[in-house]
Structure formats: C-alpha cells, structure tokens
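lol so apparently i was supposed to do this last week
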Amino acid sequence: MAHIPLENRTVWITGASSGIGRSMAQKLIQSGNRLIITARNETALTALKQSAPDQVEVVVADIADSNSIAHMRESLRALTDHIDTVILNAGTCEYLDVSNYDTDLVERVIQVNLLGMSRCIQASLELLKSSSKHPHIVGVSSAAALTGLPRAEAYGASKAAVVSFLESLGLDLNRYGVDVSIIYPGFVETPLTDRNDFSMPFLMDVDTAVSLMIEGIEKRKIKITFPRRLIWSLKLMAALPEKLRFRAGLSMVRNTG
Ligand SMILES: NC(=O)c1ccc[n+]([C@@H]2O[C@H](COP(=O)([O-])OP(=O)(O)OC[C@H]3O[C@@H](n4cnc5c(N)ncnc54)[C@H](OP(=O)(O)O)[C@@H]3O)[C@@H](O)[C@H]2O)c1
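anyway here it is w/ NAP bound
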C-alpha cells in the first residue's frame, strides 16, 4: 500500500480554529508542513499562527457564503503557487426537531457541509493540480453517513451527500493525478460534540482521532473510518433487512413525550 508522509507539504486545512481541525493543524506543524488555515474565527486562527509564524498562513473565510470562492482563491494564490494537500474539515452539526420543523436549519447545514466543501474545492483545484507531490483532497464526512439516524435529517443527509460528492470527484480527478479520501469519524470529543445531550458510544479523544486520520491519509486510503466498533455496528445496521433496520433506528428515537 502507498505511504506518502504528511511531511514537508503545503497543506490547506479548513475548520482549523477548533476541535479536529485545530488538533490536526498542530500535528501538521510539528511534522514540518507549511500550513494555510481557514475558518471564520480570526482570533483563534491568529493564535495558531503565532505558535509557528514562519510555517502558518491565515485565510479567514465563511464557506457558507458564495462570495468566499473568489476570496479564498485569490487569498490562496497570493500565498502559494501550489497546494499539495487540501483537508476539507470545516463543518457544522444541527439536529432537527420534527415537532418544530425548520428547513432553514437544513439549509444552514447543507450550506456549510456540502456547498462549503464544493466552494473550497473550486477555490483550490488549480493550485492542487500544480502540485508535484502527488496531490490529495481529504474530505471529512461522518459515521452518521452510513445509515439514517434520528434527528440527523440535515446532518446525516449533508454527510451522506459529501460521500457521494467525493466518490465522484475521486473518479473525475484521477486523470489529473489528484487522490481523494473520505474520512468517517465516529464521536470525537470537540466543541461540536460537547453540545450533544445524548450518550455517545465509543467517544474518542481528539488526539487519537487525528492520529488515525493522519495514518489513513498517509496510506492514501479511499475511506478512513474509526472507531472500529462504532463503524461495524452502523455497517451492520445498514446491512439489515429494511424492517429490522427501521426497528433498530426506532430504538434510538428518544421519547420526548
Ligand atoms: N466531533 C465529532 O464527533 C465528529 C464526528 C464526525 C464528523 N465530524 C466532522 O468533523 C469536522 C470537524 O468537526 P469538530 O468536531 O472539530 O467541530 P468544531 O470543533 O465545531 O469545529 C468545526 C470547525 O469548522 C469551522 N466552520 C464551521 N462553519 C464554518 C463556516 N461557515 N465557514 C468556515 N469554517 C466553518 C469552525 O470554525 P469557525 O467557527 O471559526 O468558522 C471550526 O473550525 C466537521 O466536518 C464535523 O462534521 C465530527
């Protein structure tokens, strides 16, 4: 299996102001990469840059805004003539309450998780094609993409769409020598999951999760999944006959009385 170290590369990472993205950025700084970091929170990004000012550049952007494509493209071009790895990690999670149905919520989540990812690809694709170091797009989906789960109408749909989107992209970019990998994390301790008010099986600390992500990225795995026990449970559920799968899903619906 291929092994291309995530070292001494020019890496653009989105969602680097918090959680998985920030921890990933910190690890990639330690391994000698040149980083361009993106999110909306300029203060958090600047603090990260200050930890390694010669290695890190900041591009502040709201990927939910369609104007961000031109802004990000121009900002990236001003900083570099190529990008070796793009890590599309920025994302948001909101759960739908069907008793207070809200399409605006669905739109907010899709805007960031799916359309935001597409905007980032549009902004960086030419720079990726200019890489001489076997360029790589890495997109963060979720274990929630594996089967329909309660209250995940927006989040689950956005992450399942990300899988389909990246699978197609991997096929179409192959002729340009650009690899595409998809990450399916289970529950990872971050500000995003700190908000959850339900029990999270096999919750993983962020450093362990990021180490597994880097290991998979270096092996150029097409799909990077963890933790194993959660992924197998969800894959098993997805493989059940429809009625059994429905019943398993129903058992997760909480009784809000
Ligand atoms: N934690 C988990 O259990 C888990 C599980 C599966 C998948 N994931 C996925 O992993 C990724 C990272 O999540 P996390 O847990 O690290 O969450 P987090 O701590 O909330 O971080 C989310 C990051 O995305 C950025 N972001 C959100 N909206 C943005 C926007 N409109 N424009 C630009 N950046 C935006 C945030 O930055 P700003 O707020 O500064 O913009 C932040 O840096 C997400 O895609 C998430 O869906 C997480």
